[in-house]
Amino acid sequence: MELFETHRRHLWGVAYRILGTVADADDAMQETWLRWQRADQDAVEDVRAYLTTMVSRVCYDQLTSARSRRESYIGQWLPEPVVEELGPEDRATMDDSISLALLAVLERLTPAERTSFVLHDVFDVPFDEIADIVGRSTGAVRQLASRARVRVREYGPRRTPERSAHLKVVAAFAAAATSGDLPGLVAALDPDVVWTADGGGRVTAAITPVAGAEKVARLVLGMVERWYTGMSAEFREVNGAPGVVVLDAAGAVDSVLAFTVAEGRITRVDVVRNPEKLRHLTV
Description:
There is one protein chain. Helix content is 51%, strand content 16%. With 283 residues, it is α+β, with helices and mostly antiparallel strands. The chain has a seven-stranded mixed beta sheet. Helix 2 (8-19) packs across helix 3. The longest helix has 25 residues, at 47-71.
């Protein structure tokens, strides 16, 4: 048990990036732990590598069923957010590999492409080990990762890596939104900003993405005017970067907002409102 716990955070990070949901990652961790209990642990030379392979196989097997569920999803599908206390101010850069924007892009990949990309490009797992996980040759896995890399570059968002610059524009967005400042809100948004909301058909949310600074600004101010009375907002760490958590009058999480920032403006806002994707959060 102690050996497994030593690597739990790393293993969960692998599972979450491959699967994209907290619930699925937790299920994968449970199955991995059960398999580890049945393994000949004394024969394992590199526990971290062994467990990484084990959890990756579990996740790869889960991906096909996860994709079928998402194909029948109502509205836009976004990953379940990971929310923590806001990180230290002196931490200069952010973890792009866990951003909601990147995880949403990974949804475009096949299970084999996604697994290969995450394991190699994020966790530096050798191609020959990945080949054993996905049941392909080493050369095929190298091609899978290469194709995934091209798609990530093609569809991945522009992103400012500096935490202080990111937080500054997010704070400007929040101040303008809560004060009804339309010009200030537009100024915080990139002209081509995209607003994507995930309500899962359970709560009110835009079914299709909304694009353009003026449209997004008016959408935000309209929502604040209609629903924000009695609610509150907190700056939190959302998937490795400063974001916003909106609480209802009872203190429960209503929405989680993740921001992508480039060149001093917000280029993308991902809003998770589906209560099923927020039930794991306590603030």
